[in-house]
Amino acid sequence: MRKFKNPMLVLFGLALVFTSCGDQKKGNSGALTSNAAEKVYVAPGEHDEFYAFVSGGFSGQLSVYGLPSGRLFKVIPVFSQDAEKAWGYNEETKPMLNTSFGFVPWDDSHHPDISQTNGELDGRYVFINGNNTPRIAKIDLTVFETTEIIEIPNSAGNHSSSFVTENTEYVVAGTRFSVPVPQRDMPINEYKGNFKGALTFISVDPEDGGMDIKFQLMMPGFDYDLSHPGRGKSHGWFFFTTYNSEEASTLLEVNASQNDKDFIAAVNWKKIEEYVNNGGGTKMPSNYAHNVYNEETHTATSTMEKEVLVVNPTDVPGAVFFLPTPKSPHGCDVDPSGEYIVGNGKLSADLTVHSFTKMLEAIEGKKYDGDAYGIPILKFEDVLAGTVSQPGLGPLHTEFDGQGNAYTTFFISSEVVKWKLGTWEVVDRQPCFYSVGHLMIPGGNSRKPFGKYVLAMNKITKDRYLPTGPEVTQSAQLYDISGEKMELLLDFPTVGEPHYAAGIAADIVKERSKKIFDLKENKHEYGITSDADVRVERNGMEVHIYMSMIRSHFNPDNIEGIKVGDKVYFHVTNMEQDYDVPHGVSIIGANTSELLIMPGQTETFVWEPKQPGVWPFYCTDFCSALHQEMQGYVRVSPA
Ligand code: CUK
Ligand code: CUA
């Protein structure tokens, strides 16, 4: 059955026509008015109205921009080593990148989501997924640092992640690839019935934000693509788009899109939580790393966990249902009221919108259309709220402005389409340059979107920027959505591939942002709180240097008595107690990155000198008029 492959090829062909048509682009970009410049202009010294946390895709990081200006403020290292910040290089943060596969200093990050209280963004944390070696990270927005990473066992291509419920009860991770559970050596073509799709519910402690895997729902072997929590009336439910409901072991030869409809899986997590709290579920051996950065000791620890609680959906009647949804749905988006669940069928000409109320009625009336692996399938007509007919080609993702409008991206026809919830009519469309993936309205994942801007994230930019060799930057485009018609305001480059972003009013976050770490509270194992404590300690071939740094010297600055073959630990404390005065340090030949140490913090790097001599080190961050004088020497003698 290859019936549905050809339309896909036709669609991709069309995409090429669209994206390579330079003239078309020039015509459309001419629509910019001088008014647009005014709307994005944030005068020097003024602050932006919104933070946008933009995922880095294959860079594995999260970048922080201001909106509407599009100014880049920071790249927060998450899953990839980052030499600028010594993330994954210094001894304090190396454990953060530990996994059951060992040290994995790279990942592919797609979906940031901001923590919520009562369905509104609270600005405490950003969560983000690592797809490749399945992980979920938590970034603490008081320090803009990654403070926790939990590995997801029994999962692969952790893609329908990391979306949070409306009181941040859970951050949820869904597997893209179904895999043998437990992992074992078996023929791939015995996929059907043997491969499982784990949907992982990670609880978030309301006090300290600590993450823990509460349970894994072990679903049939589909591909779980994206997900969204219910909110408002549908709070307590979670929705997942699926494809390959055929459970084909290859998506090439046996076309996975032969089924006219795949499913959105509706999961009543409150029901499962109750089941689990009453002792339900089975403990299954599973190794996964749980890495926590302690903000008091400024040091991470990595723990290897040994088991997870697994729940079989058929053991909890009434907890999981399938909603038929046409043609390989990708995005799965729930509107701010919680009533509408939008399934963006990549290969469908229409957008399908399900009704939560109708879904409950159908469940109540037990109107099932058979089951798949014991999970009741609801009838398409019974749950359908409406269809947006033929809005564009290749729908991917939808967001909401909180004023009754939805905005959907179309990858192939390269545009954002605005339509009305309830009447399903298209009211506006604007081109994207080019091939848009996700879009983001600040707060668009909550009950209270800030419906002023939409940010579209493009996969391809071709002629939009100065050429930089064969690869050109990806981009984000900002549209004003405060009026009836969308207006393109700005187009700016991004770091890595921006899959998705989360935005929030800056006021909510900036009040909480920490300015310095109190030196007196420094509980780092090798930290010092006064210059009286600086020293060099030798323990066999291991040397520990307790060093301080302050404008504009190191103490000690000249060190002797080191031998080739020693393992030298530099534990360096920044004694400053001023906002925005980090110092940096490294030493010649060290195969680690420099340390960039914040006021009040201690960081450690290890140096194994290979040659006798007198070797200089210096401060790498321009910190004062005497920055260039901030230096020292280490004398290394033969072994
Ligand atoms: S996915 Cu990238 S465009 Cu990973 Cu959210 Cu849809
Ligand atoms: Cu310290 Cu430059």
Automatic annotation (TrEMBL):
<dbReference type="GO" id="GO:0005507">
    <property type="term" value="F:copper ion binding"/>
</dbReference>
<protein>
    <submittedName>
        <fullName>Sec-dependent nitrous-oxide reductase</fullName>
        <ecNumber>1.7.2.4</ecNumber>
    </submittedName>
</protein>
<dbReference type="InterPro" id="IPR026468">
    <property type="entry name" value="Nitrous_oxide_Rdtase_Sec-dep"/>
</dbReference>
<dbReference type="InterPro" id="IPR041114">
    <property type="entry name" value="Nos_propeller"/>
</dbReference>
<keyword id="KW-0560">Oxidoreductase</keyword>
<dbReference type="InterPro" id="IPR008972">
    <property type="entry name" value="Cupredoxin"/>
</dbReference>
<dbReference type="GO" id="GO:0050304">
    <property type="term" value="F:nitrous-oxide reductase activity"/>
</dbReference>
<keyword id="KW-0186">Copper</keyword>
<dbReference type="InterPro" id="IPR015943">
    <property type="entry name" value="WD40/YVTN_repeat-like_dom_sf"/>
</dbReference>
<dbReference type="Pfam" id="PF18764">
    <property type="entry name" value="nos_propeller"/>
</dbReference>
<keyword id="KW-0479">Metal-binding</keyword>
<dbReference type="InterPro" id="IPR011045">
    <property type="entry name" value="N2O_reductase_N"/>
</dbReference>
<dbReference type="InterPro" id="IPR051403">
    <property type="entry name" value="NosZ/Cyto_c_oxidase_sub2"/>
</dbReference>
<dbReference type="GO" id="GO:0030313">
    <property type="term" value="C:cell envelope"/>
</dbReference>
<dbReference type="InterPro" id="IPR001505">
    <property type="entry name" value="Copper_CuA"/>
</dbReference>
